[in-house]
Each structure stands twice: as C-alpha cells, then as structure tokens.
Amino acid sequence: MYDTIVIGAGQAGLAIGYYLQKENQRFLLLEKGQEVGQSWKERYDSLVLFTPRMYNSLPGLPFDGNEHEFPTRDEVVQYLKTYADTFHLPIQFNEDVQRVMKMGDVFRIQTNQQEYMAKNVVVATGPFQTPYIPSFSKKIGTEIHQLHSSQYKHPSQLKKGNVLVVGGGNSGAQIAVELSKDRETYLAVSAPLRYFPLSLYRKSIFWWFDKAGILKASRDSILGRLIRKKGDPIFGFELKQAVSEKKVIIKTRVMGAEDHQITFEDHTSLTVQTIIWATGFKSSFPWLHIEGILDANGQVLHQRGVTSVKGFYFIGLPWQHRRGSALLQGVGYDAAHLIKEIKNT
Predict the structure, then answer these.
(1) Of 226, 230, 297, 300, which has fewest CB within 10 angstroms of its CB?
(2) Is there a domain that residue 220 lies in?
C-alpha cells in the first residue's frame, strides 16, 4: 500500500514527486515510457522552447545555462533526467495504466505489469495525450502523406513536393519555417496571426510578462480570462519573415478535403503532397472508472487540480490555475498547492 501513486513521470509528475519526497510519503511514479523525458525526446528534432531557462526550472533545481537563453529539446530531456536522478525519485517504467478504481478509501491502479493500491492518486499525464486530427482527413487520398505534429521529427520524413501545415500555434509555426527552407510550404490558420518578440531590451518577453503580473494571473481573473480568450501569439518573428519573403504562404482555415483537394474557408483549394496536422491534442482517460471526475464531454471536473473524489488529484492540465500550468514554468506552483491538499487528506 502506497500513500500516493502518481500516474506519469513527465515534468508534472516529477514536480509533485519532489514534494512527496520532502513529506516522506511512500509514493511511486508510474511511467508508460521507457525513460524520463521520453515524450520530449519524441518531439521534432529542431524544437526550441520560446520560454527561457529561468522559467523552465522545476522546484529545487535551476536549469543550467544562461537564464535568458532558450533551451533545445535535448536540453530539456537531459534536465528532466538530471532532476529525477538528483532527488532519487522512485519511478517504475513501462507501466501502462489500464484501470483505476476506488474501493472504499483505497484506490486500485491496474497496469500492464501489476496492481497497485494507494490512499491518493495524482494524474500527471499532461495535455499531450491523444493527437487531434479532423475527421474529414479520412477523405483525403492515400497518396497524400499525412502525419500529426507529434509524429513529425525532421524534413526527411516527408514526401517530395509541397507541404501544408494546419494549425497556427507555435509548433505549427516552427515546423512551417523549418520546412520552408527547401520546399513550397503553406500554413493554414483559423485566425489572423499575432506576433510577440522573444526578447525586449535584452530580456526575455516572459521576464516582462512576469513583472507585469501576467504569469501569475489565475484562470478566472479578469486578466486570465482575457489571455485565455485571445490565446497564445506566435513568439519570435521567424515565421513573419518567412511569410514576407513568400517562403511560407498563409491560407485560411481548412474546411474540408476530397481526394487530392484541400478546401479552405476563403473558397480556394490546393493540392498537396504532405499534410502536417499541428492541431493539438485532446484529453483521454479511458482507464478511469470513478464517477464524478469527468463531465459528459470527458473534461476534468476540478478546482485547481482537486476533484470531488477524496484523494484524487490532477496536475499539469492546461490552465489548471495559470497559463503555465501545463508547462515547465508552471507545474511547480501547482505541485506546491496540491501537496498541501494531499497532506490534509
């Protein structure tokens, strides 16, 4: 019997693990992958964070290097491994959770390996679970190569010829810029793009956000609601430059597809060789068999990660409390809050 079982050993799981360790709890992190940082390692090779090192540290361990510079994917992977090793966090790898139930005051967690029992459960699986791809993608001809941004690693994966990246977030922007160096590249977006600088007067834009209180704005504050409504801008001007040089051609929202033709909101159409769906993810908890935690749409019912089921918690959800709750910069704050709730369970 464990005091707490944490499902997931990404940044959110490691952060809550740090505090569980400090409280001398008997706990275990169950990780589906084979190593710490695996989900990061599987992302595209050229990934660079748009938040600087000073805002990518987990509790108790600064991110090495110039605090105003931006870490690469591989640096994040190494940092997470170092973090787990530094604090000797107990992680069980290759544990795919298949069923979670509650029997009286005890949770039963069944994995592909064995069954665990615990007084508390913290779900730290993060926001990047099930890739979302529009259903009409099935109408696209099989000769057109399709992949989700989570499957994209480097340009050599793609067929020769042009490419359409669908999705106006920062991942879609970075991928489009990379691909535009050697092929005709289109980027479909649902709203006009907004650009913010990565730095201002030699300091990260996030340093200025911090000073202005933006990073501390809660989801239900006036400022928080405004930020959520507007969504994230594109950080940096690489895409803006590529668009001005006509290396990346902006298209409107994708409305449908039929065989070779992709149609857009402005009634234009395009034939492409490859489509990368940078369309985000949707949450999925098929293994959760406890009433009162998810609503009819499968969304988590919680107050800052605390559910109505005693002893059951979430960490790492988008906007769980602040903008950065699903990111390296924010999971530590939520972990510090949750440990107080867990101590009082």
Answers:
(1) 297
(2) no
Domain that holds residue 182: 132-194+233-277
Distance of alpha carbon 148 from alpha carbon 328, whole angstroms = 23
Q: Report the chain's mean pLDDT, rounded to a whole number.
A: 94
The answer as to whether 226 is a domain residue is no
270 lies in the same domain as 321? no
**pLDDT band (50, 70, 90) for residue 238:** very high
The tokens describing 139, both together, are 């109408």
Q: Is residue 67 domain-shared with residue 170, that is, in the same domain?
A: no
How many domains, in total, are found in the chain?
2
Predicted local distance difference test score (pLDDT) of residue 179: 97
Which CATH number belongs to the domain containing residue 81 in this structure?
A: 3.50.50.60
Do 157 and 147 form a contact (C-beta atoms < 8 A)? yes
- Asked if residue 99 and residue 52 are part of one domain, the reply reads yes
Per-residue pLDDT band at 231 (split at 50, 70, 90)? confident
**Distance between CA atoms of 223 and 287, rounded to whole angstroms?**
35
270 shares a domain with 136: yes
Q: What is the pLDDT of residues 161-215, one digit of tens each?
A: 999 999 989 999 999 999 999 999 999 999 999 999 999 988 899 999 999 999 9
Q: Which residues contact 122 (CB under 8 A, 6 or more apart)?
A: 4, 5, 6, 7, 13, 16, 313, 314, 315, 338, 342
How large is the angle between the packed helices 331-343 and 11-22, nearest 10 degrees? 40
